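Forgive a beginner's question, but might I ask you for the amino acids of a protein and the tokens describing how it folds?
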Amino acid sequence: MSKNNKNKKKKISDLKNGGILLEELIASFDGKTNPIRCFSSDQILKATDNFSESQVISSWGYFIWYRGVIEERPVSIKKWSCQNLSNFTEVYRDISVSSQMSGHKNTLKLIGCCLEFDLPALVCEYAEHGPLSKDGGISSGEVLPWKVRLKIAKEIATSVTYLHTAFPETIIHRNINPTNIFIDEHWTAKLSDFWFCVAIPEGELYVEDEVKGVIGFVDPDYYWTMKVTEKVDIYSFGVVMLVLLSGRAAVFNGPGETPMSLNDHVSEVMERNGFDEIVDKDIWNGLGGGDDDLVLRRSQVEAFLRLALRCVRFKKEDPVSGMLEVAKELKLIEKLS
């Protein structure tokens, strides 16, 4: 392709993507958005060494996260895969919601985007430890102390609460799971990936939409009714809490390598009062503990599990009222002494 044709294609892509993004911003937030920078494709390609595999942070089919450096600043760059996406507007929703959420300290901050690719690339702050793995760990394999696990849950709860309450319409994430939680160098948790978000109009209790999310984190009521409510995020967050507590993925290999739902496993264990079977043993030993008192740690873990079970509605008669209640409870658990 000649240089002139390449530049022409970039301009067409830039105009098309810019227009779609503007429409999404207007539809989602009445045109109100935080300022974000526009980066050139040359900057993105240079930062990622032409999207080199050596720069990959994580890959999930729909997109790949790359590490890079732009203007001497480390960044995380999200590159979408056109082949796997069925609804391109979700990419623009990711940008529009991320831009609104970026002021919250427990959200992966959106710095800017590049409109010169077929789909916009997102440029976000760099998080040293990357996203959590499916079993709630980090890429280095370092065991997370109990205090860090509790801190991650508390901080993500505040981010989801902000998403639900800070805007004229309640916004539901619909994709809360460990791989969307980044951890920075100070062990601060950052929520990301807002492409499945949907808004519940003022005065309404729910919207109906096709089921979105990751297996093991999808609220069963949502799965059967297709009604999106705050409970969708509360349930998913409850499963995240169980992942952090158990060190197991939401779907793991049980006896005979049979896939097993973590929620079903926890429910079955709780029916026979097998509390200690649920908790990751590293939480009790020196690796996952810390210098706190073991009795205090146990009381925190028990309270944490009780709250997680309320989030996933283990006992139907004792659900939580909303994410605000969850965030407050986690702060109280952290303060137990």
